[in-house]
Amino acid sequence: MSALLQLATTFGMLSVLAVGGGTAVLPEMQTILAQRFDIDHTAFVHIYSLGQLAPGPNMMMVLVFGFQIAGLLGAGVVLLSFFIPSSILCLAVGRLWNKIGERPWRRSVQSALEPIAIGLMCSGVYAVAKAALVGPLTIGLAIVVFGLLLRTRINPVYLILGAGASGALIMHLTGIR
Q1: Which residues, at least 6 apart from 68, have a Cβ–Cβ distance to it below 8 Å?
Q2: Is 99 left (phi over 0), alpha (psi -120 to 50) or beta?
């Protein structure tokens, strides 16, 4: 199977499975990219981190995977296959949802989907954390950033940049890798 067709089927499937947002499919995306396309966990975390910092939707980071695997055409294929299926599905379900109105079972369905979406997002966070927290330095920085997120109103982008700069400085000064 060609790389472009493999990219289209992989990211098309991930698009449809992204219940609760793109974070929900991160563990599966990480596994598939490692198995089929030889993108290791470190590269995955780096690209994911860039996606969090870049302006716009954070899941635009999938284009970088497509570009790494098959160049500019790969990025285009990933763009279309990751965003079009879920957009069509959301449009169709949204229209149906509005037609249903305020029927009693509508709230039941919504209540049943909420913990599923939350669980999938938590598994995404776990997958990224498992790959990113590789030693005492990264664990310490993560704890500090988490504490600051909970206790202050500092923009998370500044915390991410600060943690990255601090980690780079500490690694440079101590030689820790």
Answers
A1: 39, 43, 47, 74
A2: alpha
